[in-house]
């Protein structure tokens, strides 16, 4: 196809996944392997990882993963009864943020990090639809380490599903009305797998 032909036709990029009332864009190799390996080690060693707890039916339950919250000083974030005060940006987190911002086409002032230590660590069904994220949040999700399944289901019809495998060095941008209409999860697996780190860059409206 000539350059002119492709210019006028503007084919939808094949990394775009258009769901009913929501949109995903997946870049499987956003970071090359060597850089991904370095970033993973750097984040494992420098982030203030913590196993947080939530209260459920009057009991204190530990989240099945380690977490950390970084961002601009003004951004605090609440979910599952917790309010997280951000730690100041590290050099590595700013480096990653500055690479993904032009691709996501949206600024980010905070990042939630999750460390899934093995296949028993997981994240249950939820949508990132807290009011401070605004009505149609753009969320950029960066992945290092073990490939994990990422499942989506339509809130009003659980038969409507989408499944992806998020690999080492990948970037997934969630946008449009995805958080309003869809939930997502990272299920447990019995496979013997190494750890995985996920970073979700967000914009908190203050
Ligand atoms: O680990 C993932 O891929 C998902 C993380 C997530 O959904 C979140 O932090 O809200
Ligand atoms: Fe999420």
From TrEMBL:
Its cofactor is Fe(2+). The lineage of its organism: Bacteria, Pseudomonadati, Bacteroidota, Chitinophagia, Chitinophagales. This is Alpha-ketoglutarate-dependent dioxygenase AlkB. It comes from the Bacteria. Keywords: Dioxygenase, DNA damage, DNA repair, Iron, Magnesium, Metal-binding, Oxidoreductase. GO terms for biological process: DNA alkylation repair. The keyword Metal-binding applies. PANTHER family: ALPHA-KETOGLUTARATE-DEPENDENT DIOXYGENASE ALKB HOMOLOG 3. Pfam families: 2OG-FeII_Oxy_2. GO terms for molecular function: catalytic activity, acting on DNA; demethylase activity; dioxygenase activity; hydrolase activity; metal ion binding; oxidoreductase activity, acting on paired donors, with incorporation or reduction of molecular oxygen. InterPro entries: AlkB-like (IPR027450), AlkB-like_sf (IPR037151), ALKBH3 (IPR032854), Oxoglu/Fe-dep_dioxygenase_dom (IPR005123).
């Amino acid at each position: 196809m000539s350059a002119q032909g492709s210019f006028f036709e503007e084919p939808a990029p094949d990394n775009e996944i258009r769901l009913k009332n929501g949109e995903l864009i997946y870049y499987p190799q956003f970071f090359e392997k060597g850089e991904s390996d370095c970033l993973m080690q750097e984040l494992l060693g420098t982030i203030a990882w913590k196993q947080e707890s939530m209260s459920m039916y009057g009991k204190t339950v530990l989240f099945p993963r380690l977490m950390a919250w970084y961002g601009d000083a003004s951004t605090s974030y609440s979910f599952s009864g917790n309010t997280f005060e951000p730690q100041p940006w590290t050099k590595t987190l700013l480096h990653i943020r500055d690479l993904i911002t032009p691709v996501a086409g949206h600024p980010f002032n905070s990042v939630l990090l999750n460390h899934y230590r093995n296949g028993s660590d997981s994240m249950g069904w939820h949508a990132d639809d807290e009011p401070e994220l605004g009505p149609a949040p753009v969320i950029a999700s960066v992945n290092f380490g073990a490939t994990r399944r990422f499942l989506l289901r339509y809130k009003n019809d659980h038969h409507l599903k989408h499944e992806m495998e998020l690999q080492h060095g990948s970037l997934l941008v969630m946008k449009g009305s995805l958080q309003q209409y869809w939930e997502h999860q990272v299920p447990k697996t019995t496979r013997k797998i190494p750890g995985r780190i996920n970073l979700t860059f967000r914009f908190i409206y203050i």
